[in-house]
Design goal:
0% strand; 2 helices; 85% helix; elongated; mainly alpha
Length: 71
Amino acid sequence: MRRFPALYLLASLALVALAYELFWPTGHTPWRLAVEALHLWTVLFAAPLLLLSLLRRALAALVRGLASLSA
């Protein structure tokens, strides 16, 4: 999936939309359901991945800083 990130995004959005409609039947229109799925995808996948990436970069910078102090 690394070669086709847009395909991964669309597939994950479709799965989230399907799960959302199966577990919380709302009767929304497909457009409204797509917006809800995008919101859920952002909250469940994109935001945690972004936070983990930022945390990893911050920790790497901290380790580099501590290494330069001890050198």
